[in-house]
């Protein structure tokens, strides 16, 4: 077995959030020097086998590590460790986001944070970043049509916008929050909105399209407005449910 394969050991217990547990395990090895800067990480399949997690969990963890500046991925080649910075990691336990009230509080933060991120992304995004956002939306649409997992492409779309700001702190915060930012991972958003799943997600998809179109046009004010509308719609649906 190669040294790279030995760097990811099976954790002693399954954390409440598998992706965050994987992030913490690999982060500890990078910061502790067990995975050296420039060293290639095990393949996705090898990490899946060693940690007993799905490919979705591995990809979310790698996205968070990349946003945190701990690894970089070269498509078709692999993922490599970077020299860790001296800063401390931001910590939010997704397990604490469990009630409608918790999701509402998080949405208030997201409205402020992601509206500005969308505006900056419209000004600073590269063509490649725009294409990656497009792929995430196409995957969302495909999963919706097939009844599959829409959470992963949903989170990736929002994370890509944060990364396109070219401000690492936007991406760091989004990365550490992870898929817990998506309300339907915590509560039944469609039921709260009194809609069936397909109708609810089709509206979410259209709101995402409006954001992408504004970023594509490099229109920062329209991008801010579209993101604010998207997140405010979620907040208002939850507020009405809480009032009931």
UniProtKB/TrEMBL annotation:
Domain of life assignment: Bacteria
Record's keyword annotation contains Flavoprotein: no
Keywords noted in UniProt: DNA-binding, Transcription, Transcription regulation
SUPFAM superfamilies: GntR ligand-binding domain-like (SSF48008), Winged helix' DNA-binding domain (SSF46785)
Domain HTH gntR-type, residue spans: 16-84
Pfam families per the UniProt record, alphabetical: FCD, GntR
Record has Transcription as a keyword: yes
Signal peptide range in chain numbering: none
PROSITE patterns the record matches: HTH_GNTR (PS50949)
Record-level Gene Ontology MF annotations: DNA binding; DNA-binding transcription factor activity
PANTHER family assigned: TRANSCRIPTIONAL REGULATOR, GNTR FAMILY, UXU OPERON TRANSCRIPTIONAL REGULATOR
Protein name: GntR family transcriptional regulator
Organism: Bordetella genomosp. 5
